Amino acid sequence: MLTCQLRRDNAAVAVAADPATIVGVAAECAPWIIADYGATALTRAWTISTGPGSRPAGGGWLPVPTTPPGPGEPRRCLKVNAGQRLIALQAGPGPWAVRFTLRLVRALIRRQQHAEGEMFLHAGAVIVGGAGIAVAAPQRSGKTTTLLALLEHATVTGTPAAFVSNDDLSIRSAGGVVTGHGWPRGVEIRRDMLPSLGGIGARLAAAESAAGATPGSLHLRPSRLAQLAGSVLASSTPLRLLVFPRFARPGEPAHLRRLPAARAIRLLATHLRRPDEAEDWLDPYFTVPGQALSTAAITALGGVPAVAAVSAAADLPATAAALTALAADPDATVLP
């Protein structure tokens, strides 16, 4: 058994497992959550133990209620010792041990960050030319398509770019700077939008989907998406622009519209999500942030310039160019 700590800022989780599982979890977490193999043990950190040595010993252990496994998933066995902050996972070796451990690591660290006031949004983010752009929208409204169009614009113009997140972004404000943080999570892309995305669309169309994609979609690991986009991965970015996209109605011209701060805050509130929904059995063991912290995080985003972006598929290159210009200079006068 090998032990390492997985960290993001002040949050940490220890994992004890066989070396292959540890290496697999660390690879999936990077760059958003960093593995530290030489860290000093933290007395109050949660520890996940998996593999043959994970069978609970002594008292204080409670079984975790089982949930129906997803398609093709094996069942897992979980027990928790809240007094010692220990979780025993029995899932067998191999890729499922990595996947189940990753889910627990993510759930534990997200709850720690939430307790300090970090808010979670159904949103994504990229960095283009050093400027962080967050994109928030309901499903099938153009969020992922807009993010990919921004990465394609960066490739065409030779601008450095990085992928942060597709639909799982957390935000924190400190010192007047609002930072968006990504999380290790697969990316699902609608295949019907790929023809409108130029070179990146062609490369994605030819890519092999990872397991778990919904019909009509492509499922990729973030590292594979970044490779196909000609970009890199980034764990976080200060936000320079908030974008609320939607697809144009028939006959509606493409346009950008600046949004007042109050309107942007109201829209962002509709995209708030819980830190984690899959492992809700953990909720009683963590502090819920006070209303003041929650309000402060959302209100701080009101200071980030925001725009509504309406475009049809054919308008995506011009829209991406205009959004990139606005992120670089919020006072720029640009229209797609």
Rg (CA only): 21 Å
**Helix/strand-derived class?**
alpha+beta
Strand content: 25-35%
CATH class wording of the largest domain:
Alpha Beta
The CATH topology of the largest domain turns out to be: Rossmann fold
Mean pLDDT: 89
Structure write-up:
The chain has 336 residues and is an alpha+beta fold. The protein folds into 2 domains: 114 residues, no CATH class; 210 residues, Rossmann fold. Helices cover 29% and strands 30% of the residues. It has 8 helices and 20 strands. The strands form 3 sheets. Strands 8, 9, 10, 11, 12, 13, 16, 17, 18, 19 and 20 form an 11-stranded mixed β-sheet that branches. A 7-stranded mixed β-sheet has the order 3-1-2-4-7-6-5, covered by helices on one side. Helix 3 packs across helix 4. The radius of gyration is 21 Å and the shape is globular. The model has no long low-confidence stretch (mean pLDDT 89).
List the helices and strands and how they pair.
Layout: E1 2-8, E2 11-17, H1 19-29, E3 34-36, E4 46-50, E5 62-63, E6 77-81, E7 86-90, H2 95-115, E8 119-121, E9 123-128, E10 131-136, H3 143-157, E11 161-165, E12 169-174, E13 177-181, E14 187-190, H4 198-206, E15 217-220, H5 222-229, E16 232-233, E17 236-247, E18 255-259, H6 261-269, E19 272-273, H7 291-301, E20 306-311, H8 316-328
Parallel strand pairs: 2-4, 4-7, 10-17, 11-16, 17-20
Antiparallel strand pairs: 1-2, 1-3, 5-6, 6-7, 8-12, 8-19, 9-10, 9-11, 12-13, 13-17, 14-15, 18-20
